[in-house]
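Record type: monomer structure entry
Structure origin: computed from sequence
Chain ID: A
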Amino acid sequence: MKTRAAVLNEMCLPRPYAQSLPLQIAEVELDPPGPGEVLVRMRAAGLCHSDLSVINGDRPRGLPVALGHEGAGEVLEVGAGVKNLKPGDHVVSAFVPCCRTCEPCTNGRPALCEPGFKANSAGVLLSGARRIRRQGAEVNHHLGVSAFSEHAVMARESLVKVDPTLPFDEAAVFGCAVMTGVGAVTNTIQPRPGASIAVVGLGGVGLAALLGARVVEAATIVACDLSEEKLALARELGATHTVNALDPEAVEKIKELTRGGVEFALEMAGSVKAMELSYKITRRGGTTVTAGLPHPTHMFSVPHVGIVAEERTIKGSYVGSCDPARDIPRFIEWYRAGRLPIDRLLSERIRLDDINAGFDRLAEGKTVRQIVQL
């Protein structure tokens, strides 16, 4: 079938993207789903820094690539062997397809699925196939999803069935922002009630982490960002304290507010400076977690002796250490119960044709979560 998709042909084009047009809205040919695959009519897709990191070259991918990894849609057709999905079902994409048979998967860590990582790195589906073509030439899939498209073929392992009464624009953000942010709190750090938590970087993922801190009943929630508008939103969403990261006394102020630092600091900006700040505001014996994805050449260093003498922990959190099949429905239940007001994270609804301008707004930090309505 023919469909329209946002295809990246060249990385590192200059901003504004509304002029350089890194994403071309192109007609592509989409092959039918193969065994174990599903054809989805995409309905909504979120603009995420992980997409921006491909556009600006921070996260190089094979080109051309049909971008987008946070999406929701409706099943149109299933390939041979697909179980538990049928046409008409509503689904949310998961950007790590979990094979359920490799060592990380069988040890309860499907976010680290080895075949899924290999497929994502190669720009193919879990089967090793590419189902997108443009003028006869293959186009890479982005993280097995390629959500910025009117239609997409994905592995069954990349999809989670959800309640059909959930609006598509709300459902989409559970595929990345909510999984990564809330999961970093509930799965990666698993704090006790009454803990102190700081979130550095208040994009969609960071604000989702802040909501996660509320769910686990953190007593102190410190929000830190460069934007006063995002800090104001953080206060509305439950932050007990806010500090602008541009303040030269930010570290000292946070330590004073938290009597020496927080137990858990979450770096959500994908910036070495943000990671340095996060480490500095973590108290002795505390844990600093990063879910940001900076350029592969960017390095973070700390005094070796401090890790030992202060019993520090530094952890990574990928996909919020989630099992998508378990956590996406669970997080949706929390949203429905009023515990996770993720609808407050939705900034604008835009058209596919306006996606380049949308990435300008994201790069400028002027928005939280924009949703492409497809």
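Annotation 1: The mean pLDDT is 97.
Annotation 2: The chain has 13 helices and 18 strands.
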